[in-house]
Amino acid sequence: MAQAEKLKIAVLASGSGSNLQAIIDEIAAGLLPAELCLVISDKPDAYALQRAQKANVPTKILLPQDFASRADYDAQLVQLLQAAKVEVVALAGYMRLVTPTLLNAFPQRVLNIHPALLPSFPGLHAQRQAFEYGVKVAGCTVHFVDEGMDSGPIILQAPVPVLDTDDADSLTARILEQEHIIYPLALRLLAEGKLHIVGRRVQIDD
Ligand code: GRF
Fold it and tell me: What are the residues facing 110 on neighbouring strands?
């Protein structure tokens, strides 16, 4: 039987890239029918770049200071992504807000992972925000990206109970374990054509 076309994914990352690694591993294990075409970072020293190189994935660094505006930066991103024939853009620890320039080029095809149960605790240091607020259940969210901050339609969420013995770091570590499960899973559902955005709601086929 002919193999189905693989979804062409790019990952944008600014940091350690453990979510990128989870995606690489899931593809290598044959569990995610996708091809990782490109990893782009705004930070030359992001460990994510080394993870990509080790997996023989092409990398690019785009330095924000080389561009006059965020839109100009994203226009260059779009050029690179389109040249690599990318279909889906996965933000994974990518520390820049994206502009309509990117979103319009990949409508409903830009995803993000956020380390909180949105809409609670958007923005930076979400795990610490949740811990300091005193929530009993923290977690993470994979969502489509729109022009707001961590505000697009939610695809998957995983809850993580907060233990009396937790501090912000131990909670962050357990949330990250769940991120590594739900991000590849969300991408798999997308690759399989099982996600449908209806208004704000993402419906998932069985
Ligand atoms: C993750 O917690 C992600 O949710 C947040 O930044 C962290 C990045 O981790 N946006 P990594 O670079 O994937 O290891």
Answer: 89
Active site residue 143: no
What is the DSSP code (8-state) at residue 68?
S
Nearest atom within ligand 1 for CA of residue 115: 4
* Res 49 pLDDT > 50: yes
Cα distance between residue 135 and residue 56, in whole Å: 41
Whether ligand 1 lies within 6 angstroms of the CB of 114 is answered as yes
The CATH code of domain 7-204 reads 3.40.50.170
Q: Are 31 and 110 in contact (CB under 8 A)?
A: no
Does residue 4 register a pLDDT over 80?
A: no
* Cα-Cα-Cα-Cα dihedral sign, residues 30, 36, 41, 45: positive
Task: Assess whether pLDDT exceeds 60 at residue 61.
Answer: yes
18 Cα: distance to centroid of ligand 1 (angstroms): 7
Task: Tell me, using a 6 A CB cutoff, whether residue 115 lines ligand 1.
Answer: yes
3-state secondary structure of 183: helix
Cβ(188) – ligand 1 distance below 6 Å: no
- Residue 140 pairs in a beta bridge with 158
How does strand 7-12 pair with strand 88-91?
A: parallel
**Which tokens go with 110?**
């830009």
Measured in Å, residue 142 CA sits from the centre of ligand 1 at 12
Ligand 1 close to Cβ of residue 160 (< 6 A): no
Domain ranges of the chain: 7-204
